[in-house]
Amino acid sequence: MMATLYYLGRLDGRTPGLDLENRVIDEVGAMTPADVKNTAKRCGETLKGRGEDMTTLGQHFAARAAKIVPNPVIPN
């Protein structure tokens, strides 16, 4: 699900109004099994890197917040 949302966001940002259905059909029809394997590997690596970036970003935000509010009260 995360990968789907990530790539849909990239597509929407790059080409608003894209006819995604027909583009997917065209691409799938043109891909060999080797293409599918290579694309899955490449996309998986990209998604992993972006996930790591988001984790680091969250850690940085938490560290900054701790400097502003050293002992926050967290509601139950």
Please explain how this structure is put together:
The protein is mainly α. It is built from three helices and no strands. It has helices at residues 2-14, 20-30, 33-68. It is elongated, with a radius of gyration of 19 Å. The model has no long low-confidence stretch (mean pLDDT 87).
Task: Report low-confidence residues grouped into runs of 5 or more.
Answer: none
What's the pLDDT, averaged over the residues? Answer: 87
Report the span from N to C terminus: 29 Å
Helix content: over 70%
Keywords, please?
single chain, 76 residues, mainly alpha, 79% helix, 0% strand, elongated
Entry summary:
This protein is mainly alpha-helical and 76 residues long.
Topology:
Elements: H1 2-14, H2 20-30, H3 33-68
